[in-house]
Design brief:
about 350 residues; alpha+beta; 9 helices; binds zinc ion
């Protein structure tokens, strides 16, 4: 297996390395020198300080800007300070970076890079598809990092959804074509078709120009969580004639319509979905703590992974072997949820 830059996928120059869990984060949570026992990362004695993967110097420098900005945004949220829609957009980029970075890092550690043959790396995948973020708080004994969702067969194949707990904040993040677009009044994505050469085929119809509930079925607004959505359509404005993205509704609800960056939508307890004006400041920190513990909070992440594969992809269009793999992976997630809930006596939310 050849070494590749985790950001661009090319052979990295010099000997630069990237911490997939940023150094500031493992220090902030008091885990820098701790051995990481992260989901599917094999139980080797790797400390967070040593959890690094090859990267080009130029890529690393470029992404250090995103890292510094995200650190301050994330810290503000954890201190109950308001943030702007643009800042939430930056944070969504950061979650794309961490999610894809963990995926590539894990494939490397588990020697699965050749088998899975990643079609994209961090730089190609940031800000590309619709995004979702849920912020929750749980009562914990102290500091730490935990990851969920990264150990499932679905995640090995596609880094669609994961969860990261930072001290007492739980962040669930997902990204996929058409995940929230139609429900937010943006164009409707038909199920993603598989193509022989492993590329996805997208077809999009005009949207309804108004929101429709629920946005993502397994996430219900509550006082204990903040739900954030962002439709994304970079490069999709030219995929077909009579482009469904070229309508006033989409343009008025985008941060950067030219580059296919939709706006930030927020859903709180009263169920209404609000579009945030680009520079509008808002407090997104949940006021109340979630009732369950970490294990309970992690379950919807596995459910969401199954939902994305089952409902957003046209599995029938896939090669029989791929179809079989996907169905098995979906079943594994369902089995895992059922077993965990039973073992921990968790009731369905
Ligand atoms: Zn690079």
């Amino acid at each position: 297996m050849a070494k590749f830059c985790i950001f661009c996928g090319n052979t990295p120059d010099k000997k630069n390395k990237e911490h997939v869990i940023p150094q500031w984060l493992s220090k902030f949570t008091g885990k820098y020198h701790s051995v990481c026992r992260l989901g599917g990362v094999p139980q080797r004695d790797i400390t967070f300080s040593a959890l690094t993967f090859p990267a080009c110097t130029a890529c690393n420098e470029k992404f250090s800007i995103l890292e510094a900005q995200s650190k301050s945004i994330l810290t503000n949220i954890m201190e109950s300070k308001p943030v702007t829609a643009w800042e939430i957009n930056t944070l969504m980029d950061w979650f794309d970076k961490i999610r894809v970075g963990m995926w590539l890092g894990q494939l490397t550690l588990e020697s699965k890079v050749d088998a899975v043959a990643p079609k994209f790396h961090i730089a190609d995948r940031i800000g590309k598809k619709d995004r979702f973020l849920m912020i929750e708080r749980i009562k914990t004994d102290g500091k730490g990092i935990a990851l969920a969702g990264i150990d499932s067969p679905i995640f090995t194949d596609m880094p669609s959804a994961f969860q990261i707990t930072i001290n007492d904040f739980v962040f669930t993040n997902a990204s996929e074509y058409g995940l929230v677009s139609e429900k937010l009044g943006f164009p409707k994505f038909h199920k993603i078709k598989f193509h022989d050469d492993n590329h996805e085929i997208l077809t999009v119809d005009k949207g309804r120009n108004k929101t429709k509930h629920p946005i993502i079925p397994m996430y219900t607004p509550a006082n204990t969580c903040t739900l954030i959505y962002q439709p994304m359509y970079p490069g999709l404005r030219s995929i077909q004639p009579n482009n469904p993205f070229d309508v006033p509704y989409v343009q008025q609800h985008s941060l950067d319509a030219e580059n296919g960056r939709g706006g930030i939508f927020l859903q709180k307890k009263d169920n209404t979905v609000r579009y945030l004006a680009p520079d509008q400041k808002i407090n997104v920190t949940p006021k109340e703590f979630a009732t369950g513990g970490l294990v309970e909070c992690a379950m919807p992440t596995y459910e969401l992974q199954g939902y994305i594969l089952e409902h957003l992809y046209d599995l029938k269009s896939a090669h029989p072997a791929t179809q079989q793999f996907c169905q098995h992976a979906i079943a594994m997630n369902k089995w895992r949820i059922q077993n965990t809930m039973q073992a921990y006596g968790i009731k369905k939310r």
